[in-house]
């Protein structure tokens, strides 16, 4: 009875069929990265704002004031009376009514050098506002932390999606969960755009994050499972589409003037992905793990036909393993020695990559004052990462680039911390090299993670380990700003230590270059050890053949 990899080799490991599926599913990376980074444009702060005095709107209409004249009567006296008050978070503690004079509305307040002040809780005026959730929901002054909360809630959605939808994809199928997730992202995105209040906004942003994670992780696993072992570099290439989303987002935001329009632009394309129901099949590897060999064989014949090949009639059955299929759980990932080591190291690698990546992005701050151009440049910096991986990973393996990228990130963070401020160009160049290095580590962990779990646990394992990425994303801003308050360069020291430890730990992982995807936990336990040879043969328990 032939193994799945033998059948896949005869049907074509990366033919026309796989290329089409790869290209279609890769578009998910564009929409997911746009969702991931959208807060930069959805939450863009207005150029200036000030707090309106109660009754000022009615008085302004009665007196025929322009907005500038109202501001002069409101903010200028406030600033003259208290130079530390700019009028953004405080207002004059007065109320204007019908008895107030249009010529001198503050005449009854007496000496302008001692005007009473009151904190502003609402009724802000945003001058020349960029339409954003900041001006929509008054996320300024005492409410400014709510903007950070909106991104934390999105990351919590990613975290929930990794657990819930990762588990569901292993139990109910990859393509089913992918399609349901696309539907969820689209519907929740529309509701977010028209949220009547900030509470509704947060609830459906959380749900959109959850479904968004489901689309990204599931499409990644499908692409990985339908290609041969020599073609799994597509797991790196798909990351380029994530970067393309980062590059495209500022263009979308520049052309669309409202935050609701931007939100719809990054959400509605997910409905188009529902058309994949007719062109993207279920993963045949997953079907075999659920004892659906006939369906898997039918899909393999279709793959062979589209690839211009013919599947031999002797392939009446395919085997993938004799392992009993059960509902996956965390215990399955740590029950055996190799699985336990892989899981713990990968969880740490995901956490570290996300923490350092986001920390360096926030610290670097992006050069210049043009948000759209600067954001575009920050995305373009990431493009070389995928190409460097493609050039090296099939020549020298996964483990060494994985380790070296973390080590280089560690060294550059350490150097940046102690470079003097007067050579800012060098400091920024080294920091950019650090970001490129950690981006490489981030992209390699995707590939290595999927290669170190058996088919029955792959989607759940990738989703669970990558959930630490979301945890790192939540912690990064708090770690950065709190440590920077002690010493500006202290976060870089912490980043350097974390990356160095990660670089050493990943050397303990098995090398997976040129090795077929493991089908069972036993296959994982038999993967070449860190001191073993990559060419070591692995015997399938179902056949007498070696691969």
TrEMBL record:
It catalyses: spermidine(in) = spermidine(out); L-histidyl-L-proline diketopiperazine(in) = L-histidyl-L-proline diketopiperazine(out); (R)-salsolinol(in) = (R)-salsolinol(out); tyramine(in) = tyramine(out). SUPFAM superfamilies: MFS general substrate transporter. GO terms for biological process: dopamine transport; histamine transport; monoatomic ion transport; norepinephrine transport; serotonin transport. Residues 74-514 form the Major facilitator superfamily (MFS) profile domain. Its main location: membrane. One of its GO terms (molecular function) is monoamine transmembrane transporter activity. The keyword Transmembrane helix applies. InterPro entries: MFS_dom, MFS_sugar_transport-like, MFS_trans_sf, Orgcat_transp/SVOP, Sugar_transporter_CS. This is Solute carrier family 22 member 3. GO terms for cellular component: apical plasma membrane; basolateral plasma membrane; mitochondrial membrane; nuclear outer membrane. It is found in: Apical cell membrane; Basolateral cell membrane; Mitochondrion membrane; Nucleus outer membrane. It is a multi-pass membrane protein. The keyword Secreted does not apply. The gene is Slc22a3. Belongs to the major facilitator (TC 2.A.1) superfamily. Organic cation transporter (TC 2.A.1.19) family. Keywords: Cell membrane, Glycoprotein, Ion transport, Membrane, Mitochondrion, Nucleus, Transmembrane, Transmembrane helix, Transport. The chain crosses the membrane at residues 21-42, 149-168, 175-194, 200-223, 235-256, 262-280, 345-366, 372-393, 400-419, 425-448, 460-480, 486-509.
């Amino acid at each position: 009875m032939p193994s799945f990899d033998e059948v896949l080799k005869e049907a074509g490991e990366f033919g026309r069929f796989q290329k089409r599926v790869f290209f279609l599913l890769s578009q998910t990376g564009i929409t997911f990265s746009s969702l991931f980074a959208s807060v930069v444009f959805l939450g863009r702060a207005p150029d200036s704002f000030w707090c309106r005095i109660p009754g000022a709107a009615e008085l302004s209409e009665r007196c025929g004031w322009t907005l500038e004249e109202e501001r002069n009567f409101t903010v200028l006296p406030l600033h003259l009376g208290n130079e530390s008050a700019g009028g953004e978070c405080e207002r004059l503690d007065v109320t204007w009514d019908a008895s107030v004079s249009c010529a001198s509305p503050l005449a009854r307040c007496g000496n302008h050098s001692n005007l009473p002040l009151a904190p502003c809780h609402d009724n802000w005026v945003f001058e020349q506002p960029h339409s954003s959730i900041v001006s929509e929901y008054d996320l300024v002054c005492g409410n400014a932390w709510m903007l950070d909360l909106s991104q934390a809630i999105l990351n919590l959605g990613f975290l929930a999606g990794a657990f819930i939808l990762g588990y569901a994809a292993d139990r109910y199928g990859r393509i089913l969960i992918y399609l349901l997730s696309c539907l969820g992202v689209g519907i929740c995105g529309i509701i977010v755009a028209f949220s009547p209040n900030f509470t509704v906004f947060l609830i459906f942003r959380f749900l959109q994050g959850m479904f968004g994670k489901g689309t990204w992780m599931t499409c990644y696993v499908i692409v990985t499972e339908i290609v041969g072992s020599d073609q799994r570099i597509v797991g790196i290439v798909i990351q380029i589409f994530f970067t393309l989303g980062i590059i495209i987002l500022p263009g979308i935001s520049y052309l669309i003037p409202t935050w609701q329009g931007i939100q719809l632009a990054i959400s509605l394309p997910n409905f188009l992905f529902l058309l994949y129901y007719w062109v993207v099949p279920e993963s045949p590897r997953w079907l075999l793990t659920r004892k659906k060999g006939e369906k898997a064989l039918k899909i393999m014949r279709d793959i062979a036909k589209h690839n211009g090949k013919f599947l031999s009639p002797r392939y009446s059955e395919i085997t993938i393993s004799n392992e009993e299929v059960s509902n996956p759980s965390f215990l399955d990932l740590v029950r055996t020695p190799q699985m336990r080591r892989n899981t713990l190291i990968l969880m740490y690698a995901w956490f570290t990559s996300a923490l350092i990546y986001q920390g360096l992005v926030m610290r670097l701050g992006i050069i210049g004052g043009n948000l759209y151009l600067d954001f575009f440049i920050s995305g373009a910096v990431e493009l070389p990462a995928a190409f460097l991986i493609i050039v090296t990973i099939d020549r020298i393996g996964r483990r060494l680039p994985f380790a070296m990228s973390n080590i280089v990130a560690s060294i550059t963070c350490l150097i940046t911390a102690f470079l003097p401020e007067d050579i800012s160009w060098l400091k920024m160049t080294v920091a950019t090299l650090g970001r490129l290095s950690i981006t490489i580590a981030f992209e390699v962990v995707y590939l290595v993670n999927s290669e170190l779990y058996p088919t029955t646990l792959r989607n759940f394992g990738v989703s669970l380990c990558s959930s630490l990425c979301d945890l790192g994303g939540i912690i990064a801003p708090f770690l950065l700003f709190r440590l920077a308050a002690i010493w500006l360069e202290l976060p870089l020291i912490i980043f350097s230590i974390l990356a160095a430890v990660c670089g050493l730990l990943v050397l303990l992982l098995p090398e997976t270059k040129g090795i077929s995807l493991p089908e069972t936990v036993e296959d994982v336990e038999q993967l070449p050890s860190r001191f073993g040879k990559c060419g070591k043969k692995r015997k399938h328990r179902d056949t007498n053949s070696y691969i």
